[in-house]
Amino acid sequence: MSHNLLKGKKGIIFGALDEKSIAWRTALRCVEEGAEIVLTNAPFAIRMGEINQLAAQCNAPVIPADVTNLEDIENLFIKTKEHFKGGVDFILHSIGMSVNLRKGNEYTNLNYDFMQKSVDISAISFHKILQTAYKLDAINEWGSVVALSFIAAHLAFPNYNEMADIKAMLESITRSFGYKYGMKKKVRINTISQSPTYTTAGQGISGFDGFTTFAEKMSPLGNATADNCAEFAVTLFSDYTRMITMQNIFHDGGFSSTGVTEAVIATLDK
Ligand SMILES: NC(=O)c1ccc[n+]([C@@H]2O[C@H](COP(=O)([O-])OP(=O)(O)OC[C@H]3O[C@@H](n4cnc5c(N)ncnc54)[C@H](O)[C@@H]3O)[C@@H](O)[C@H]2O)c1
Fold it and tell me: Where are the domains of the chain?
């Protein structure tokens, strides 16, 4: 059901790989709510993934951009401005990749070249996107930018590895750039800290199944799905959340505020 929350709005969605992706679900929901979008992903992901199917469904162009590459990002904004004949109202950064996780390196045995690559893709890319948009004046007044985070930025989780530190940086960029862009143009910038979600990136974390079940048992409302996340992102892109900026908002069914639940105690009681 559509409420036309994004009628007349234009946006860029980064990170739709396949139909499980949070970005994929969000792209569909934004279009349902009346938005026009541009889709983007890294060239290798466009070749390997299914983004062209999504593009057809959303009537959206796909403009490739490796988010570690400033020229790609600049080209994306220039082409998007041409396409929309103006700036955008919202941006979703739904990008994450840990090279050390992929290579099976423990947190106590990180390869630092890999770590730098992971930081570049998953956190500095957010700064690169915002700085490029800022310089090209590519986001309209009262625009909204959202990135995806995870609670491991605040609490220790054994298997989240270097991504915990990287998400902490992502959340910090959200505050620092949120200040600058808010002052300059009333652009708001927030992160959504999402429940564990079955996607390609999520399933790359070892012990993901067990942790997802644990989070479900630890959340009064249960885990938030990718579709729930898409709906929440739509509200952040809408005009009804105009005064929220520089925040990390937990979208996790209550997990982050729960000490323990009866369901978890029951599994441990002797
Ligand atoms: N799945 C979860 O459990 C979960 C929980 C909390 C937060 N998140 C975050 O949500 C976001 C989206 O992940 P997802 O779970 O939908 O997984 P996903 O694998 O579907 O999406 C990750 C995307 O990042 C893109 N990407 C990787 N390297 C890139 C590059 N160099 N340039 C441009 N794009 C690049 C991939 O192509 C892919 O589309 C990530 O930031 C992730 O950390 C996921």
Answer: 10-268
